[in-house]
Specification:
Number of strands: 3
Structural class: mainly alpha
Distance between the termini: 22 Å
Order of helices and strands: HHHHHHHEEHE
Radius of gyration: 26 Å
Shape: elongated
Strand order of the largest sheet: 1-2-3
Number of helices: 8
Helix content: 55-70%
Largest sheet: 3 strands, mixed
Length: 308
């Protein structure tokens, strides 16, 4: 595979998640307090709602920390293949929470439009606008920061948390549009922005849920990755051909089952050595592979033995 990422062992991955999550919690708490104060002082209901949204993200990050901690447990008597799928469960929970958040934003927007009235509207102050801008910048940075960490260790739960940061950024963008619209005399912009934001968040939640579900039901890896694996396997000394290769996602890890053909007249020890070489080559070349099982088929007498 080209452009392989740095290999992280379970302890390093766990430490990375905990560090990123701790930063997320601190940032969300500080933003929540800032936006709440700005909303109260500037008389902005949109900013107060946005503060509550940021506070709810702390709960999401705690789910990530729990899910990753459980998935990092070593195999035991009752779970001999490990606990990696617990991270998928955490990602699915976060996807549901994210979808609910988006629905709430969209529902609020629809209600405001259906019952829209300019009577009694209180124009929010400039402080609320400034708070919205700060929130957008900080949450976008947190989105990319968390996403980069998630991609490094192939963490679905951490990626879901990254999208929670993005949803908060979009929520702040909606608050900014609403506050600015109210100050310019177009308060209806706020609910319209909320509906657009709802659609974007629901799409992200669906993608996260589908990815987690794929990892729960042993979906195979992309065909391009299988092709790369075949090239690595066929390149090992003593391998005459690759008869079959099967892959399945198990949480953030990959299991591989391979059948190769080799000279049937050679000693059993030599066939075992070839299988071991294939096993190590696959696991070393593809960091996400947790285990590779290799079965050796003897070539028929009429077949040509591959010369290495």
């Amino acid at each position: 595979m080209k452009n392989r990422a740095k290999i992280y062992d379970a302890a390093e991955a766990h430490q990375l998640v905990m560090s990123v999550s701790a930063i997320s919690i601190v940032v969300n708490i500080l933003l929540s307090v800032m936006k709440l104060l700005a909303g109260i002082i500037a008389r902005s209901g949109a900013m107060i709602s946005d503060a509550v949204h940021s506070a709810s993200d702390v709960f999401s990050t705690i789910i990530v920390m729990i899910g990753v901690s459980l998935s990092g447990r070593k195999p035991d008597r009752e779970h001999q293949y490990g606990h990696e799928r617990m991270e998928c469960v955490a990602a699915m929970v976060l996807a549901v929470v994210l979808a609910a958040t988006g629905f709430g934003i969209g529902y609020t927007g629809v209600v405001k439009i259906l019952h829209f009235s300019e009577d009694g509207i209180e124009i929010p102050g400039r402080l609320a606008l400034g708070a919205a801008v700060v929130s957008i910048i900080v949450k976008e940075w947190m989105y990319w920061f968390t996403r980069k960490a998630a991609e490094r260790i192939n963490s679905g739960a951490l990626m879901a948390d990254a999208w929670h940061h993005r949803s908060d950024s979009l929520s702040s963008a909606g608050a900014f549009v609403g506050i600015l619209g109210a100050r310019l005399g177009y308060p209806v912009l706020d609910p319209l922005a909320s509906i657009v934001i709802c659609i974007l968040i629901e799409k992200a939640a669906f993608d996260i849920f589908r990815d987690a579900m794929d990892k729960m039901v042993d979906k195979s890896v992309p065909e391009a990755v299988v092709t790369d694996m075949k090239v690595v396997i066929a390149g090992q000394k003593g391998v005459a051909r690759v008869d079959e290769i099967k892959t399945r996602l198990f949480g953030a890890k990959i299991y591989v089952d391979v059948e190769i053909a080799a000279d049937g007249n050679q000693p059993l020890a030599e066939g075992h050595r070839i299988a071991e070489n294939v096993h190590h080559a696959v696991e070393e070349s593809f960091p996400a592979v947790k285990h590779c099982m290799v079965h050796v088929n003897p070539l028929l007498p009429t077949e040509k033995t591959k010369r290495s």
